[in-house]
Amino acid sequence: MSSERRAIIDIQEMRKVYDLGAVKVEALCGVSVTILENDYVAIMGPSGSGKSTLMNLIGCLDTPTTGEYILAGERVAHLSDRQLAEIRNRRIGFVFQTFNLLPRASALQNVELPLVYAGESPSERRRRAKEALEAVGLGDRMKHKPNEMSGGQRQRVAIARALVTNPSIILADEPTGNLDSKTGEEIMQLFEKIYAQGNTIILVTHEEDIARHARRVVRLRDGLIESDHIVTRAA
Amino acid sequence: MGRKLVRSIYSFFESFRMALEAMRAHKMRAFLTLVGVVIGVATIISMMTVLGGIKYKIDDAMLNSLGANVFQVQRYDNDAGIHFGPRRRKWRPKIEAYFADELRERCPSVRTVGVESWSFGRRLSRGGLETNADHSIAGGSVEFGTNNSRYTVLGRPITPQDISSARRVIVLGFDAYKTLYAGADPIGTFVRVDGQKFEVIGVFEERGEMFGESQDRENWIPLSTFERIYGEKSVNLTVQAWDPKAYRKAQYEVVEAMRVVRGLRPGEENDFGMWTPDMMQRQFTEQTAFIGIAAFGICGISLLVAGIGIMNIMLVSVTERTREIGVRKALGGTRSSILRQFLIEATTLSLVGGAIGISLGYGIAIFINQNLNFPAPVPVWAVFLAAIFCTAVGVGFGMWPAVKAARLDPIEALRYE
Q1: What are the residue ranges spanned by the domains of chain B?
Q2: B9 in A contact zone (CB under 8 Å)
Q3: How many angstroms separate the CA atoms of B254 and B69, rounded?
Q4: Phi and psi angles of residue A78, each rounded to the nearest 5 degrees, phi first
Q5: How far apart are CA A153 and CA A164, in angstroms?
Q6: Which of A200, A196, A202, A145 is nearest to A171 (CA)?
Q7: B173, B250, B288, B342: least CB-packed within 10 angstroms?
Q8: In chain B, % of residues over pLDDT 70
């Protein structure tokens, strides 16, 4: 890691408490983590470890109970719904385990969706969505609906959708969880390519095989960071 | 600001497109939801169109029924229209022809007074040809043509000489001319009415039909001739004011003059009738008001039911699309954009129903009007009103589901199975 890379995510002493009425559940008990630009981080941990909570907070889908979160130089811990929506739109590209494509929309329309919320013109949307689909190798599937595509293709559409706004971070939640291992491997190769192009990738997974693709692995347990280490790779 | 506006325009169109797509995906569901809107809007449009058509026809007919600035004094009040209960009519003395002179004398706002006496259900014949017994013979003074806005297209009208010598001359209505002459020149030939022989001196211009009834069966003979044949019946007086400004004033003067002529004391009821073209229009408006109110009632109830249907279907849609809402939020959709999307969907749904309702209502109106021979101008205000109602129903009943959608927690929504 060269020292001139900027921190894109800076989380300090983040706590998240869910108030379930009778009991209060502390999902995160003071997590501090810094992620640099063009990093490739896997967040791991058993269920209940707080990894989903952390991912939701990183993704600006939720706000912490206490603590600070600076995303690309912007303090986002206590923003309003509208401001968070804008941050999600500009800064975060989500990739979900279940793809979460709109079933009635074509691949192209699905990829255009974040640009609709960004307020881009229809022609600009079309141009950039085509580019993103070509980048994930689906230049010939633009008019297809999700149900006319394989799982791998669907996940590629989802990745194109995540990339299309040129976000700071790709946030992938078990992206290979619904794919067979061969297709999963293909998707991981695609992430590798995206990483090589200078993007920051955060991968949430419980599979060691998948986590191995990352350059850094953060392990959570009981709402705390258990370990945080650089992946050593064979040359 | 400019960018924000552009953004909301894009997202508006996007929402509209999505709404149409959602309808296409669930055609049957959309159709069933729309039935209420369609019925409501079709009712109001067809009723308003038919009423508008009738009114238009009445206005048209009334405008031409009497000449400019003319009103009529008659024995009984005109009581055409819808009646409840038995019709009772108190006997009144006849209107005499000489009253015309009295009115001319006493009423400065009055220009002319025509006198006419009627015999209905007459039959005209010529050689082997004859009309049905549904023609009218009017014994009229020289003002008859002008005051009834009937003009001769062939020959001449009746002159003072015709009247003073009680000539047996006749101006034919267009129907009698058609039946008895079939286009041949009638002037100087003879027709028979009730055994009497009349020389044809003119033919009235064709007026056409109203409510399927020909308006061309009135034939004009001199008043003096008429009274010799049919006796001295109660007459109608057609009073023409000098100009539109004097029209009202002339009516007051005539009522006063009639009361004096009849010797009525103050407080005593008028024992004669007055009729102006706008009276029939007023009567019609009053009598159709309740039809209009009933139509609005039906429309209101069906729109209420339709609105509840729309609310129901939108709630179903929000539940079905919980995940989609989560995805949209994750990709940058704000609460207000989700709210707007579902409101536009609900409104599109009800507007499509409104559009179908307008077309259907128009179709029904055309069908009715064609069978009654009316014009069918769909009132523009009714179309606008229907559109506004539908928008209101869409926004009103779509609001709760849309708010529900907008308030969904993105994390919960994304996890929804």
Answers
A1: 2-60+282-415, 70-275
A2: no
A3: 14
A4: -130, 35
A5: 16
A6: A202
A7: B288
A8: 94
Nearest to B280 by CA among B19, B31, B77, B102: B77
Mark which residues 334-373 of B lie under 8 Å from A by CB.
334-337
The token pair that represents B352 in the structure block: 């499509």
Whole-angstrom distance, CA of residue B48 vs CA of residue B292: 7
Amino acid at B246: A
Give the DSSP H or E segment for A111.
Answer: helix A107-118
- Per-residue model confidence (pLDDT) at position B17: 84
- Confirm if B225 and B166 have CB atoms less than 8 A apart: yes
Distance CA B110, CA B248 (A): 11
The residue ranges of every structural domain in chain A are: 38-61+89-230
pLDDT of residue B93 exceeding 70: yes
* Cβ-proximal residues to B119 (8 Å cutoff; 6+ apart), any chain: B136, B137, B139, B226, B230, B233
> What is the ipTM score, two decimals?
0.92
- Predicted structure pTM score: 0.71
Cα(B373)–Cα(B221) distance, integer angstroms: 31
Determine, for residues A61 and B329 on separate chains, whether the beta-carbon distance falls below 8 Å: yes
- In angstroms, what separates the C-alpha of A3 from chain B's closest C-alpha? 32
* Domain over A38-61+89-230 is classified CATH 3.40.50.300: yes
Instruction: Determine contact, residues A45/A51, Cβ cutoff 8 Å.
Output: yes
DSSP SS3 for A209? helix
Q: What are the tokens at B43?
A: 């009712």
